[in-house]
Amino acid sequence: MIFDSLLGWLSSDMAIDLGTANTLVYVKGKGIVLREPSVVAVKKDAKVQRVLAVGKEAKMMLGKTPGNIVAIRPMKDGVIADFEVTEAMLRYFIRKVHNRRTLVRPRIIVSVPSGITQVEKRAVRESAESAGAREVYLIEEPMAAAIGAGLPITEPTANMVVDIGGGTTEVAVISLAGIVYSKSVRVAGDKMDEAILQYIKRKHNLLIGEHSAERIKIEIGNVLPEPPFDQVEIKGRDLVSGVPKTVTINAEEIRDAINEQVETIVEAVKSALEHTPPELSADIVDKGIVLTGGGALLRNLDKLLRDETGLPIIIADDPLSSVVLGSGQALDNLNILKEVMIA
Ligand SMILES: Nc1ncnc2c1ncn2[C@@H]1O[C@H](COP(=O)(O)OP(=O)(O)OP(=O)(O)O)[C@@H](O)[C@H]1O
């Protein structure tokens, strides 16, 4: 019986939020011990590929590497896009958490987007196992996010959570420790960055990298900007002359640039509301919708969702950590894990 093997968990056991943008690790009894971008810099010589840097150090190299070095983001749209590199990244993070001591192989809880395929689930399990896990348990991200945000998921009442990450936006209605309805769209922070990059290219003939696009979004991104608009100077390469140049961009332009992605997220929320059984809808009217994930920090997204749905919208206390905090609670309290883990 699988639950028998839940006994005897060790202090080296951990919960990992293997995100498209960031990877977070929670160690049993200790809390969050690692928070790094999901980026790996790899050097390719002849046929051999060597990992040069992982996490923050590798993210600094994005878009700045010479020919034989590539900075790779091995997760795309919430799932593993490059199996080997994901495994190398996980191995690095697990060893870092353990201070490179070789301990008993840990049991690991990994959160995955809701509705991922069996093949994608197997890829996550296998990559965690080859990176050193003894056993791997999976939890759906919106469930983990809801637990991490402190929602009473085991009660017979609706909890609605919208987790906006780098690769996916997950909308879910949870009651009695089960997901009553969920919708996962592969539109979130990364697609916004891409849209900003394309907008600046089109409108200002300026080429910028994805790292700069993300920085602009975080600095002045706002879904309901008002004059005087915040603005930021950006440097890039002029498409026509080929030389470096600087332009000033304002928040209204960025709203325009990411409008389509924001609309997709709003529509996903509305569609979830339409598919929620009436008894549970009544609970949502009272309790509202909780936003988690880095995208919850996009300025005024909560206000826009409130305008569009007429419901109370609450941003979780620490939206970037909700998922790993929820998986961490399942690690600390195995009764929760038994209820929410998926096959
Ligand atoms: N202040 C901010 N304003 C807008 N977006 C932000 C802000 N801070 C972080 N983000 C965005 O949040 C995203 C990362 O969020 P998070 O770490 O929750 O995602 P993830 O778990 O790695 O992704 P996924 O759940 O899709 O696998 C990035 O796109 C980042 O640019």
From TrEMBL:
Listed GO MF terms: ATP binding
One of the record's GO cellular component terms: cytoplasm
Pfam families for the chain: MreB_Mbl
One BP term from GO: regulation of cell shape
InterPro entries the record matches: ATPase_NBD, MreB, MreB_MamK-like
Signal sequence interval, chain numbering: none
Subcellular location field: Cytoplasm
Function: Forms membrane-associated dynamic filaments that are essential for cell shape determination. Acts by regulating cell wall synthesis and cell elongation, and thus cell shape. A feedback loop between cell geometry and MreB localization may maintain elongated cell shape by targeting cell wall growth to regions of negative cell wall curvature.
Quaternary assembly: Forms polymers.
Name this polypeptide is given: Cell shape-determining protein MreB
Annotated binding of ATP, by residue: 20-22, 166-168, 214-217, 294-297
Family that this chain belongs to: Belongs to the FtsA/MreB family.
Keywords associated with the record: ATP-binding, Cell shape, Cytoplasm, Nucleotide-binding
